[in-house]
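Batch job 17 of 40 flagged for manual review because the log was empty.
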Amino acid sequence: MGRRDDRVRLPIVSEELDALLARSIDGLSMAEIIRLQDLLSGELKRRFGRQLALAFSDVVGSTAHFARFGDEAGRRLQQRHVDLLGVTVPQGDGRVVDTAGDGAFVVYPSVDQAVGSLVALQKAITDDNLNRSYEDQLSVRIGVHWGDVLTDGSGVTGDAVNLAARVTATAEPGEIRVTRDVHREFSTVFYRLNSRSLGKLALKGISRPTEVFALEWRDRMAFPDSMRILETGEQRSLPAQSTIRFGRLRELDGAVANEVVLALPSDADTRKISRWQFELRRHPTALVLRSVSDGATEVDGKTLAKGEEAAVRAGSRIRVARVLTIELFTRDRPEASDATVRA
């Protein structure tokens, strides 16, 4: 798809180009130099122009990881990212163009191959995180664009590359975001139905607003993306990372203690909630709650002991310390709207 035929070459153009190249630059007129530029530009596009799916993946939070745990631990986190790319990128007939620091630049011959491979990457990260401590969790954001580039089989350049990088910068941890150009190229119905428009985003360095979609690559009922606190009516999105911690403590020694801080208007009720109450962990086929507190945690009416686990899904209710109730749900896809993001 989108690949131009390198075997086609117009004889007249070839002869004119050969004739101009055979002459000394000093002997060419201004009109001939301009013509030579046009011919070379056409030859460049003919030989090296391609349409490709362009993807960037970026490790989230590695700077803080380096600062907190040291260079060796930070480098191991980056290497896990590269190693998992090495397993999943070939599944989509892709090629890793560059890995520098926290990120990687990957290209694929088609959109469906790209997204299939990148979903496999996110799933592989989720599976790998199950066997690791919270501090060693790997989280990656991904952005994908479909566009025209120049490539010699090694390097890949063009405005489309910059756009793909900017889209990646807007993504949340664990997300895959794609442009409208990618969405149009989908031949897989699943991807089209599970792409949620985020509206037109104004991206730094990009002249026109770009419509961006979040690809909901997990089962939306098995992996709810939102929660509401029934006692207060507060609603919020769940972070897309592999492990989400819930509790009343906001931070410890300058680091985030819980991704979801639980509190009620009454300080007395809030103090009944443990500093760390429970975790939600993304397993391959289910979202699993694990109690990490001696305080009461109930899942759909069942009380869990510390260390006990239970699967949850959209519609599940979690009762915390008998003072707060969380209901999990999957939000409806909103209509496209304009938004501004500087990334």
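Reviewer: the log was empty due to a logging misconfiguration, but the result itself is present. The chain has three domains: 11-47, 49-215, 226-329. Unflagging and moving on to job 18.
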